[in-house]
Amino acid sequence: MASTGTKQARAGVSSAHEKMSPANKQTADSLPENSSSRFGLSFGSLRPPSLKPDSPAAPELIAEIDRVVETALKEDLRGGADITSTSVLPPGALATACIIVKQTGILAGLLACERVFQHIDPAVTFTVHLPDGTLVSEAPVVCATLYGCARSILTGERTALNLMQRLSGIATMTHRFAAMAGPSGIAILDTRKTTPGLRLLEKYAVAIGGGSNHRFGLYDHILIKDNHVRLAGSVTEAMSRARQSSPGQPLEVEVTTLAEVKQAVEGQAEKIMLDNMPPQAISQAVEIIQRKSFVEVSGGINLDNISAYLLPGVNAISIGALTHSVQSLDISLEIEG
Question: pTM value?
């Protein structure tokens, strides 16, 4: 017999779908179309490969999920087994389990969760009820069910939940920022401030939450930052060196003063990042830029003060906290019985 909590969560699957408005039932179909750079991105968004298998990002994302899952399981099992489950449960024991979302938020990481169990035991069935991108407005609710070897399910439980909780937390935080910025038309960007080894998954979660992806690494986008400028001597000199070394590469430069803004404009930077500037200075910078460059604002922006930065002429706001300071969503796995 299922526990009371599981019964309530199961009942919530249909009721949540029935009560959600189309806007609340956010899935991949409501995300922006891909642009045409690496991973189909150019300050754009990934689309969930589990829902859009034709996405140009899907094969690489799935391969990255498998790499992360293999590493996580090696860490947990060290080439051995779950000695608790093998000690307590007979090898033939079967079980049904529910993955229950216990708080409101945006779901992300169902595919990663499924791949954990597939790596452990391909015979375990994994049924998704609420896909990535779903806005859970009522909790608890069951987002997926599993059936198969009880040992296998318990062996994968923590690794699967760790990934899904983390990615759902990122998607949820991103959604909050994106909802506030949406009416202004300003995009919410992530950064490279990601968990080592999880960057592609975490950027996927940002896209699921309605954010857009900045560069994926040092290799795919020139971004001249403050330390580059200090070592080169000026914004102008740093940009000149970058243009000579990498002709044809789009160039973004981080600036902190209006004088540096003028240098960036004179150097025809495709993108200008206004770093740690107060709103008044940002408005002045926008006047100098005159829409000649993509304008990104960054530094110290949070849910409490973002409204002050939603200014005319700003194209995007980048927020490191989307990935470096996020709280995981409360999700659990419960065995029925």
Answer: 0.86
Same domain, 201 and 253: yes
Q: Which residues are catalytic?
A: 158, 193, 225, 254, 275
| 194 shares a domain with 235 | yes
The tens digit of pLDDT for each residue in 110-129 reads 999 999 999 999 999 999 99
Indicate whether 175 belongs to any domain.
no
In the chain, how many domains are there? Answer: 2
Query: What range defines the domain where residue 253 resides?
Result: 180-324
Three-state SS across the chain? CCCHHHHHHHHHHHHHHHHCCCCCCCCHHHCCCCCCCHHHCCCCCCCCCCCCCCCCCHHHHHHHHHHHHHHHHHHHHCCCCCHHHHHHCCCCCEEEEEEEECCCEECCCHHHHHHHHHHHCCCCEEEECCCCCCEECCCCEEEEEEEEEHHHHHHHHHHHHHHHHHHHHHHHHHHHHHHHHHHHCCEEECCCCCCCCCHHHHHHHHHHCCCECCCCCCCCCEEECHHHHHHHCCHHHHHHHHHHHCCCCCEEEEECCHHHHHHHHHCCCCEEEEECCCHHHHHHHHHHHCCCCEEEEECCCCCCCHHHHCCCCCCEEECCHHHHCCCCCCEEEEECC
- 108 located within any domain: yes
